[in-house]
Amino acid sequence: MALIPFDDRDGFIWFNGALVPWREAKVHVLSHALHYASAVFEGERSYGGTVFKLVEHTERLRASAHLLGFDLPYSNEEINSATAQVLNANGIVDGYVRPIAWRGSEMMGVSAQATRINLAIAAWAWPSYFSPEARMKGINLAWGAYRRPAPDTAPTASKAAGLYMICTISKHKAEDEGYHDALMLDYRGYLAEATGANLFLVIDGKIHTPTPDCFLNGITRQTVIALAKARQIEVIERHIQPAELANATEVFLTGSAAEVTPVGSVAGEYHFTPGAITAALIADYDKAVGKSAT
Ligand code: PMP
User: Fold this and answer.
1) What pLDDT is stored for residue 153 in this prediction?
2) If we measure between CA atoms, which residue out of 29, 22, 150, 17 comes closest to residue 90?
3) 107: CA distance to ligand 1 center in Å?
4) Which of 149, 239, 175 is nearest to 201 (CA)?
5) Computed from CA positions of residues 224, 230, 232, 235, in that sequence, does the dihedral angle turn out positive or negative?
6) Is the C-beta atom of 199 inside 6 A of ligand 1?
7) What beta strand segments (E) does the chain contain?
8) Which of 57, 69, 128, 196 has the fewest C-beta atoms lying within 10 Å of its C-beta?
9) What domains are defined for the chain?
10) Contact (Cβ atoms closer than 8 angstroms) between residue 51 and residue 44
11) Which of 42, 216, 254 to mutate to test the pocket of ligand 1 (most atoms within 8 A of CB)?
């Protein structure tokens, strides 16, 4: 399948306050964000033309920026209305939305206090193409090549570009070894999350999920916890040892892009059969986002 590069497409991108033709939404090679990872972003999904939990995503974008020491030069309302403009201008109904804020080119050193803060919002079509049957097979995870850093080692609550360096390395290694994704431990050796999604285990009919004290407390994670509680399923947030995977009957990931994705195995050592709880939460999540039945 030929890849269509992301910088060579038709459409419009919202760039510092206005829609510009897609191919013109460029940055210079001497941009602070490119050299020093001074960038934060979001990953959102639109369903039927509306972004699910847009308010929460925009709030997190601003919070992520604050953790990197800068503020967004637009109000949340302006960002939300810009998001709607982007979806409209590109005719996107079911799609993915990528806002990104970054330090520009005014200063090129570690100190970059006077750089302009830029904001762009792009969106592209991303229909859900997995049938319920295919989705229920489960993905296979390898162990991540790196651990999630401690909160006093990196701004771990920020959806910051720099924190994805170890995710890309881990995911590439997993893919090279024939897995779909990698499961990362945290700095203490507890289970943390996949490279772009949170982790849940079903043990004795209860849901266990790692305490998000050094990785993103995902918006989907919070949604799925509420959905499980609404079904009277007990949800326990705690530190979980890797060996406890042996006690899990079902394992799944959550994320704006991943939605609720069942896991079939970890490191070829632990095997799971997506079951009733995963299926129920997939159905509940689909309903919550307003996805039409497939
Ligand atoms: N962890 C990481 C590293 C992620 O990239 C994501 C996706 N943003 C998540 C967790 C899940 O977050 P959310 O449910 O807010 O998309």
Assistant:
1) 98
2) 22
3) 30
4) 239
5) positive
6) no
7) 12-15, 18-21, 39-41, 44-47, 50-51, 95-103, 117-125, 139-143, 181-185, 191-194, 198-203, 206-210, 235-238, 250-255, 259-266, 270-271
8) 69
9) 12-125 (3.30.470.10), 132-289 (3.20.10.10)
10) yes
11) 216
* Statement: residue 70 has pLDDT above 70: yes
Of 134-138, 140-144, 257-261, where does mean pLDDT reach its minimum?
A: 134-138
For the chain, what's the residue count? 294
Other beta carbons less than 10 A from residue 283's beta carbon: 15
Give me the active site residues, please: 159
Nearest to 224 by CA among 286, 281, 278, 293: 281
Q: Which helix (H) or strand (E) holds 198?
A: strand 198-203
What integer best gives the mean pLDDT of the chain? 96
The answer to whether residues 195 and 43 touch, using CB atoms and an 8 Å cutoff, is no
Amino acid 136: pLDDT: 77
Ligand 1 site, residue 193, Cβ cutoff 6 A? yes
Question: pLDDT tens digits for 243-264?
Answer: 999 999 999 999 999 999 999 9
- Alpha helices for the chain (secondary structure H): 32-36, 54-67, 76-89, 132-135, 165-176, 219-230, 276-289
Q: Tell me which of 45, 98, 166, 198 to substitute to probe ligand 1's pocket, judged by most ligand atoms within 8 Å of the beta carbon.
A: 198
C-alpha 70/C-alpha 129 separation (Å) is 38
Token couple for 77? 């309302």
